[in-house]
């Protein structure tokens, strides 16, 4: 009876593994232990990494800054959310691992390894560590990015998207908090929890993707078909946010988001978007009528080339919207001020500790620098003494 119970336990896939794997000898029929050097594909343990601090929370996981005990290098450790899963690894986690493994580009965050903890719920992605993300930078910067620096950032995002889209990958959650930057000014697209592969003909996907402020009108109107155009609309929102130094379309609800888009770009029609009246959500409401495009009044100091690029990114018809490849050829990036070299981008080594310092001290420490007159006065005084 006890042997039968042991057999049932051993056949249970959720039972803990209590013995090492083995092979059966062809000659003797006896079990042979597998040497560690002959085991391929074994995941490293998360205990090999020392968690230093929590740095953020992605769409499908919590992210930590950690130190690899083997190499002593600093990495980002992202825990895959498993709290809603009963049948193994969530499909979003599988997609993220598969897509990141398929990508190798300087403007896309690099997946180094997948490590595990003691339980089936402890799965971590080990990724390269980037010193800052654009969202926290924008919140803490005293002086906003210059137009030259904005061009540098957007160009790098476009290069990363061109690489992804050429491999039939849609990110579906582009926003400033998912754009990381190293201390050498290299911008990297991160958080692929909602990313998907697509093909032709297009298959239906859930429209409940992309953070609301960066969501394209076809998604807001319930279109089941998604293309790379949803990423390009988000690029337009990011460019507008960097140029205006605040979120461009900060809606609170989907209807409020549509109202903001309409106020900025005018009400769409079948003339500019042939599929407009076929959008599922239009059965429930009607968009308000606003006939004017207000991009030029909104960005008064932007050149004609810059306005053309924004209008191209904000095309209502997804089929006519700019692609990453087309944006890279825009004359906006070839006119003064020219995009700066990524190595000349400003660095912010202490911005992550800014909020913590304020909470600890209760006030921000102001360092008073001496004035020019004070410096000249001290020099004259020294000369008189001599």
From TrEMBL:
<dbReference type="InterPro" id="IPR044093">
    <property type="entry name" value="STKc_CDK10"/>
</dbReference>
<protein>
    <submittedName>
        <fullName>Cyclin-dependent kinase 10</fullName>
    </submittedName>
</protein>
<feature type="domain" description="Protein kinase">
    <location>
        <begin position="49"/>
        <end position="333"/>
    </location>
</feature>
<dbReference type="InterPro" id="IPR050108">
    <property type="entry name" value="CDK"/>
</dbReference>
<keyword id="KW-0808">Transferase</keyword>
<keyword id="KW-0723">Serine/threonine-protein kinase</keyword>
<dbReference type="InterPro" id="IPR008271">
    <property type="entry name" value="Ser/Thr_kinase_AS"/>
</dbReference>
<dbReference type="GO" id="GO:0005524">
    <property type="term" value="F:ATP binding"/>
</dbReference>
<dbReference type="GO" id="GO:0005634">
    <property type="term" value="C:nucleus"/>
</dbReference>
<dbReference type="InterPro" id="IPR011009">
    <property type="entry name" value="Kinase-like_dom_sf"/>
</dbReference>
<keyword id="KW-0418">Kinase</keyword>
<keyword id="KW-0067">ATP-binding</keyword>
<feature type="binding site">
    <location>
        <position position="78"/>
    </location>
    <ligand>
        <name>ATP</name>
    </ligand>
</feature>
<dbReference type="GO" id="GO:0007346">
    <property type="term" value="P:regulation of mitotic cell cycle"/>
</dbReference>
<keyword id="KW-0547">Nucleotide-binding</keyword>
<dbReference type="InterPro" id="IPR017441">
    <property type="entry name" value="Protein_kinase_ATP_BS"/>
</dbReference>
<dbReference type="InterPro" id="IPR000719">
    <property type="entry name" value="Prot_kinase_dom"/>
</dbReference>
<dbReference type="Pfam" id="PF00069">
    <property type="entry name" value="Pkinase"/>
</dbReference>
<dbReference type="GO" id="GO:0004693">
    <property type="term" value="F:cyclin-dependent protein serine/threonine kinase activity"/>
</dbReference>
<comment type="similarity">
    <text>Belongs to the protein kinase superfamily. CMGC Ser/Thr protein kinase family. CDC2/CDKX subfamily.</text>
</comment>
